[in-house]
Amino acid sequence: MNVGVFHFATPDTAKPVDVARKVEALGFESLWMGEHPIIPVHTSTPYPLTEDGKIPDFYSRLCDPFMGLAAAAAVTKKINLGTGVCLVTERNPILLAKEIATLDHNSNGRVVLGVGAGWLKEEVEILDANFSRRFLHLRERVEAMRELWTKDEAEYHGQVIDFPAVRCIPKPVQKPYPPVLLGAHGKKGLQRVARWADGWCPLAPRPNELRENLRTLKQLMEEAGRDFQRLHISVFLGMQDGTPGADLMKEYEDAGAQRVIIMLGHRSGSQAFRYVHFFAPDEMEGILERLAENSGL
Q1: Can you give the pLDDT at residue 250?
Q2: Residue 233 φ then ψ, to 5°
Q3: CA-to-CA distance for 251 and 234, rounded, in angstroms?
Q4: Is 285 in contact with 28 (CB distance < 8 Å)?
Q5: Cα separation of 1 and 19, whole Å?
Q6: What CA–CA distance (Å, rounded) separates 82 from 181?
């Protein structure tokens, strides 16, 4: 089981370089950052993770993930660098392809691209995408980036993304390109993963739910003629789930997760470092061993 750390970087939290150094020193496998380029002042879309639907204030203060991960790459050598998730729908695919390829090049192939279509209607539309067609925007942007990453002269002609032959260098170190994990839920989300994603990165389904979803996803991938065993499965443990215990993480592994990503939230530097120390892989291994001994396994 790989264990990653998710950092909501704002001007008030620990800097990505400091978190990255600590995460690598403690033996974690990856560092992840998310994004909201903007939060509109006036919205009617409810936030899906709170009862009152109010958007947390720190969402409007999130730093750019690729700038943060580039800084993290400069001070680390081993940890993977992930987005959780990059709102591809809200970005120009040519510029984004260049940005990701440059990060992968400069980090010697450590990028994992978690992507999403966006849930905040007002944000998506301010940034020039049609909210009702956002998954089409997302898929075509990903397809276009794959063309740019793998061809010396790349072009793409879709319903919403259309450009003539261009050269876009550097290319990613990872071949054919960094893995693209889709953050989506429900039957339609699983169908999209099965059709075009390299992996799935859901937000905190319970272990039993994850197991059932992966059974469905395996069937969908077989129907699509794709190899389920090649799929990357990462699970974000959300802040609303409280402090995840080692036994819960083991349940996720047994259910089929290859990676569990622990969210730091927007903790201050000292709070964040205490949190990651508790879940350091060496410490976690000891906790799991004690659990096994106590249960007679």
Answers
A1: 87
A2: -120, 110
A3: 13
A4: no
A5: 21
A6: 10
DSSP 216-242: HHHHHHHHTT--GGG-EEEEEE-GGG-
Inter-residue contact 234 to 201 (CB < 8 Å): yes
CB-based burial, 176-206: b 16+ in 10 Å, e otherwise? ebbbbbbbbeeeebbbbbbebbbbbbbbbbe
User: What pLDDT is recorded for position 266?
Assistant: 62
For the chain, list residues with pLDDT below 70. Answer: 238-245, 265-279, 281-297
> Given this model, what pLDDT does residue 297 score?
30
CA 208-212-217 angle, 5° bins? 140
Cα–Cα distance between 64 and 68 in angstroms, integer?
6
Instruction: Give the tens place of pLDDT for each residue, 6-36.
Output: 999 999 888 999 999 999 999 999 999 999 9
Q: How many CB atoms neighbour CB 120 within 10 A?
A: 22
CB neighbourhood size of 13 (10 A)? 23
Beta strands in 64-219 (DSSP E): 80-87, 111-116, 154-157, 162-166, 180-182, 199-200
Report which residue type is found at 57.
D
Cβ contact 207:251 at 8 Å: yes
The sign of the dihedral angle between the CA atoms of 93, 96, 100, 105 is positive
Bridge partner list, 181: 114, 199
pTM for the structure as a whole: 0.91
Q: Tell me the two tokens of residue 162.
A: 């259309």
